[in-house]
Amino acid sequence: MPTQFDNMSVDENPAPLALSAAHGKRMADMADEEAEELQAAAEELRAAKAKIEAKFAAKKAAEEKDFARKKREADDEENYWKERKEKNKREKEENLTLAKAKLLSFEIGTEIFALLSQLESNQENPEFLHRIDVAISRLDQYRDLLSRISDNEPDAEEAMESLKSLVWDDHTEL
Question: What is the pTM of this model?
Answer without folding.
Answer: 0.57
